[in-house]
Design goal:
Layout lengths: L1 H14 L36 H13 L11 H6 L7 H13 L4 H12 L14 E2 L6 E7 L4 H16 L4 E7 L8 H12 L4 H10 L6 H10 L4 H8 L2 H16 L7 E4 L2 E2 L8 H15 L70
Parallel strand pairs: 2-3
Antiparallel strand pairs: 1-3, 2-4, 4-5
Helix pairs in contact: 2-4, 4-5, 6-12, 7-8, 7-10, 7-11
Length: 365
């Protein structure tokens, strides 16, 4: 009877595959080998400051992504190790290293790489008739769409003009108008800048409008024209002329064709600069221009000597300007595509001045 009493639980154990008591001291079954860790060491790339986790992430990515040059069909790591002809491979490896240090996700790191090096990202932009600063034949051209009432455009303006001075004779800055519908003074200010441009005083008016961003009423604008000693009769006529309106509409249409989602929108040599992927705009933009010059076979102008006793700080600050707002939902669709989404995740125009960049999160080992 005792045997029959234990039959039901025994059958239950057999039905679920339990055939004995496990030996907690160890299993005779061999354990699967752990996955082999990718280890990469590249000349010109110092990974000593990375944590083990960061080193693994960086090594995996430079081993996965192909070199930036279409005629060099190997991964970035192999390109650098074998000293292939693609001059962008080492800078690409260094960019990914910096992105890893900043705690960016794998997707963000790849986006930063594509933004900077993917040949398919380069667009041809018409700049004829737009106000510009720097030589017309400069090897690096920066194109900016901006709104004079946009606080982030005001922050970006001195950084871009600083690049023209820093790389004297090597950088051209082109300004394009995109007054946002949410900014009631944006279009009157743009009209004032065009009217001043017609009298050879665009950049002077540009500076006054940004410096006095909270004073853009009609009386203020006329006062700036007087300060610049403009012909007021011509200035007032140009403010409302069809040609002025056409200039603004032309710039807006081109911006929408390239997918503008907010201002400022910046292109360097045909590549859009996603400000959200920059960590220190002043230094990052300077490095971008310097690398473009080197890839073009040019020698970048040396940095000016630092004044005695000056602190070791980035040249242009660490506040990240961001796009101020999306275009109006009623914007004209781009040719051959749809209008930019009005719900893009960008800071709202009413959000006020840009906030300082968030401090870096502690790095995990």
């Amino acid at each position: 009877m005792s045997f029959l009493r234990w039959m039901p639980p025994l059958l239950a154990l057999l039905s679920i595959g339990v055939t004995g008591c496990p030996n907690n001291s160890g299993s005779s079954e061999p354990k699967p080998a752990p996955p082999q860790e990718v280890s990469v060491s590249l000349p010109g790339v110092d990974t000593s400051s990375l944590t083990p986790r960061e080193r693994r992430e960086w090594a995996a990515q430079v081993s996965e992504l192909l070199s930036p040059c279409p005629d060099t069909p190997v991964n970035i790591a192999q390109c650098v190790k074998e000293q292939r002809a693609c001059k962008a491979c080492l800078p690409a490896a260094q960019l990914l290293l910096k992105q890893v240090k900043e705690g960016r996700s794998k997707k963000e790191r790849e986006e930063a790489f594509r933004m900077r090096f993917d040949a398919s990202k380069v667009k041809t932009l018409a700049t004829d008739g737009s106000p510009e600063m720097g030589p017309p034949d400069a090897p690096v051209t920066i194109v900016e769409w901006a709104d004079f009432e946009c606080p982030f455009c005001r922050l970006m303006s001195p950084l871009l003009e600083g690049l023209v001075s820093r790389f004297d004779g090597q950088v051209r800055l082109v300004f394009k108008f995109y007054p946002l519908q949410a900014h009631v003074h944006g279009e009157p200010a743009a009209r004032a800048a065009i009217a001043a441009m017609n009298q050879g005083k665009f950049w002077e008016m540009h500076h006054l409008l940004f410096e006095n961003q909270d004073k853009l009423e009609q009386a203020d604008i006329e006062r700036y024209a007087q300060r610049l000693k403009l012909d007021l009769v011509k200035f007032r006529a140009d403010l409302v002329s069809p040609e002025t309106k056409a200039r603004i509409e032309k710039d807006k249409k081109q911006a929408e064709e390239v997918g503008l989602e907010g201002t400022p929108l910046i292109y360097i040599n045909g590549r859009e600069v996603d400000l959200q992927l920059l960590t220190n705009p002043g230094q990052d933009l300077e490095d971008w221009v310097k690398l473009d010059l080197e890839l073009l076979g040019k020698t970048p102008r040396p940095a000016p000597p630092k004044p005695a006793g000056a602190p070791d700080a980035p040249p242009s600050g660490s506040t990240t300007p961001a796009a101020s707002a999306t275009p109006a939902a009623s914007a004209t669709p781009a040719a051959g595509g749809s209008a930019p989404a009005g719900s893009a995740a960008r800071p709202a125009a009413s959000a006020g001045p840009a906030q300082p960049a968030q401090p870096a999160q502690p790095r995990k080992p």
